[in-house]
Amino acid sequence: MGTSQSVSVFTEELLDEYTALTFLTRGEILTLYKAFSSLGLDRIDNFDKRYPVQDIQECFPQLKCNPFKDRIFKVFSSAKDGQFSFEDMLDLYSVMSYKCPDKVKAVWAFRIFDYDEDGALDEKDLMIVIDKLTQSEKSGNEIAVENKKHIIKVLLKEFDLESNGAITQLEFQHAVGKIPEFAHSFSFRF
Question: Can you give 3-45 as a three-state secondary structure string?
Fold first, then answer.
């Protein structure tokens, strides 16, 4: 499918709307459309149509290789149905854009790391995050529980300003605001 065919699917108004509602350029939106349409469809003209995340991750290596892909799909799926629409993908790539403000990225990162979805990053959530970051389940190089608890203790000491044993969304935003590499590591390249 050529670019001219992709462009014809979008009206100028729709492209203007997507660029106004996201941190993406028109070119980035069309690039995403081209990758998304490689799902084997001749033409995607219903941008709300949903596709299985297994198919989506095959088209987007940034997701296929991401240790947090399951949570990313869950958090960004507008219908929470294990499927993704083109507009869900626009939302995800908008947040992962280099132009997305750090505070917006931090809100979404918090949601991804909040595995039990209770509004706080507690020891249980942080244990999972550490395992995902080290990919211990795949490599067999699991970090000892005592070492993970020590890492979590240090994180909570630094980030848990309320001293309640968990990191709130505001505390998380405050903490990642001090980490210059955060925005770069929470981004996708086109």
Answer: HHHHHHHCCHHHHHHHHHHCCCCHHHHHHHHHHHHHHCCCCCC
Closest CA to 94 of 173, 2, 11, 186: 186
What SS3 string covers the chain?
Answer: CCHHHHHHHCCHHHHHHHHHHCCCCHHHHHHHHHHHHHHCCCCCCCCCCCEEHHHHHHHCHHHHCCCCHHHHHHHHCCCCCCEECHHHHHHHHHHCCCCCCHHHHHHHHHHHHCCCCCCEECHHHHHHHHHHHHCHHHHCCCCCHHHHHHHHHHHHHHHCCCCCCCEEHHHHHHHHCCCCCHHHHCCCCC
Interval 34-77: pLDDT, tens: 888 887 654 556 777 888 999 898 888 889 889 999 999 999 99
Residue 123: both structure tokens together: 């020891």
pLDDT tens, position by position, 156-171: 999 999 999 999 999 9
Predicted structure pTM score? 0.88
